[in-house]
Amino acid sequence: MVLFSQPFDPWSHRTRIVIAEKQIEIEIVQVEPGKLPEDLLDLNLQHDPHLGRPGSGLV
């Protein structure tokens, strides 16, 4: 399991606390705001540049 985390993101900090409490081993990838890795962008439809465009099939 991989957690993409940003330095000042409260949601990733909360997730890390829960994961630590449950003693789950994960890989943590630190990302900078505005410089998200391609594999993360592929998973997140909110950042899909084609989302909602006419002819994209995604609305």
Please render the helix and strand layout as text.
Blueprint lengths: L1 E4 L4 H12 L5 E4 L7 H6 L16
Parallel strand pairs: 1-2
Can you give a write-up of this model?
There is one protein chain. The chain has 59 residues and is an alpha+beta fold. The protein has a domain at 2-34. The chain is built from two helices and two strands; from the N terminus they run E-H-E-H. A two-stranded parallel ribbon has the order 1-2. The longest helix has 12 residues, at 10-21. The termini are far apart.
Helix amount: 25-40%
The run of helices and strands is EHEH
Share in β-strands = 5-15%
Radius of gyration from the alpha-carbon trace, in angstroms: 15 Å
First-residue to last-residue Cα separation: 30 Å
Backbone structural class: alpha+beta
Q: What is the β-strand count?
A: 2
Mean pLDDT, rounded to whole units? 77
Q: How many DSSP helices?
A: 2
